[in-house]
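ligand=flavin-adenine dinucleotide
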Amino acid sequence: MSKLAKVFVFAEHVDAMRELAQGAAQLGETTALIWAGDKSQAGGTDTVYYLGELSNERILEHYAPTIINLIKTEQPSLVLVESSRKGRLMAGIIAAAMGTSVLADAAQITVDNGVVTQRMVYGGAALSTERSTAPTTVATVSAGIFEATDTGKAANLVEVPFIAPAPTVKCLERKIKAGESVNLRAAKRIVAVGRGFTSPEELQLAEQLAAAIGAEVGCTRPIAEEEKWMDKARYIGVSGVMAKPELYIGIGISGQVQHMVGVSSARTIIAINSDKNAMIFNQCDYGIVGDLKTVLPALTAKLSK
Amino acid sequence: MKIVACVKAVPEEQDISIKPDHTLDLSKAELKVGQYDLNAVEAAVQLQEATGSEEPLLVSIGTPKGLKNTKLQKAMLSRGAGALFGVADDSLDSIDALATASILAAAITKIGGVDLVVCGEGSGDIYSQQVGPLLGQLLGFANLNAVSRITPRGEKLEVERTLENEVEVLEVTLPAVLSVTTDINKARIPGLKEILAAGKKPITVWGAGDLAMTAASNIEVISTLAPPKAERKQIVLEGDSDENISQLADNLRKVL
Ligand SMILES: Cc1cc2nc3c(=O)[nH]c(=O)nc-3n(C[C@H](O)[C@H](O)[C@H](O)COP(=O)(O)OP(=O)(O)OC[C@H]3O[C@@H](n4cnc5c(N)ncnc54)[C@H](O)[C@@H]3O)c2cc1C
Ligand SMILES: Nc1ncnc2c1ncn2[C@@H]1O[C@H](COP(=O)(O)O)[C@@H](O)[C@H]1O
């Protein structure tokens, strides 16, 4: 694989920075990180372009004109962007300023007469392979596709002069979200719940099964996004966590592709659903047609023995 | 306040089938409004209701098959918007996010005087979550995604963004492009009355030639293929008798 001349990384979180720095080193002759916030955390690339601190007066978005100017000056061949919410916004802003589109949510990136990425489309029903021949390609990169480097390689740190943005967005308040931290991507066993559950209390039935077999609890998107019964970090699928468990048990889950792609590599898939025509039964190893309120307590009791 | 919501017609995913050569067969898939664009329409309508402004306008880029289909037009217009502007051309099938954003920008400029553009979190088929951010930059408007609340504050808006680890509250000066999350609201379900009324709302469909736009793309789609399917045992027990549950427990124990 030939290498690109210059690969930039734009990340807002340290984990993603480490992964993307590794990706940049694989793909580029020279590498640079664009970073705002805690200066001491930046590293892993040949150069660090340091934007400045983050505060209510200066949120990441306020650095957009500075970043665009830097990219226009440096003309990197590729900008790898963390696929966080702010990363996605900045990717769009940079790409539009550079007259190109964004290669979104790349699950694989190679260099072959341009930058070639693979991503899921149609909710995971298909993989689309796309090639960008833009002078500067912008790609948002899914978590976990490059192994993180943990070395803060002594980088050449360049302070980038601030270019003030139009005063149209003022930050009034920033609140840290009180959320639990869970890493479903690393879980070996997952018990997942879907809309077949009718109340947050009923979820305990799944939690008890999970406890009995040492599994993490995950869910479908509507349980997290609509019902808000579980943290968003727990929903599995094309727009959530792409998990790689050995065992997946889907309960009260219809088995639509957007969810199932998130566990399609599981060694064993088990389904519990009251509708014998549910799609999940075509994609499972073992299944039972039954009411979760009956099946779960009995199953947990048998497995706890 | 003149508000536009962007909606995309997407194929019904349940009806997409896979051909033996792993390519997708979309021919039986009817078009519907992208699920997450319904939240954009709802956000626009709620803001209009809160500010007493004129009914929001919808803009949609697509093919004549989709945008000239009356059922789809009604699905778009039965949820509180006042009019639909479509840009339809067969050349606009499967264009990239920048091309979509630049046509949207041209249409919004042609409509004129737009204060706020609301986009969905992502389109139902491609879901790149990029058209809104690209559009905001192309128009030179204030540009935010992950918006989970919009409250009018005089001439400005107060906007909440839900990010991975934090929530931001921002004051936004119009004009702006806001991409909203799917939990910003519960999109209304139109009744028969709304669907009938939708048939009488004004619809303008422009052709590609009616707008000044440059949709040259430097991204090429090499292939779109269904991934190989894993073989599964598909041993399914019918009925939640104690015997069946015991058997399931035995099977489960084998893989623990
Ligand atoms: C662009 C896009 C991206 C998406 N991304 C994701 C994603 O990443 N992850 C995701 O999960 N979804 C995603 N979705 C949503 C997805 O399409 C489905 O809507 C969702 O996965 C369905 O969730 P569910 O199976 O919990 O609910 P449902 O489809 O409503 O299924 C509920 C199931 O419970 C069963 N049931 C009911 N009562 C009982 C009972 N008492 N006992 C046992 N079973 C019972 C029913 O038979 C039914 O099969 C996405 C959608 C779009 C458009
Ligand atoms: N063809 C289109 N016509 C109108 N709006 C669109 C179109 N494509 C995308 N959008 C808007 O942009 C958002 C993000 O789309 P995407 O970047 O494709 O995920 C969608 O939720 C829509 O609001």
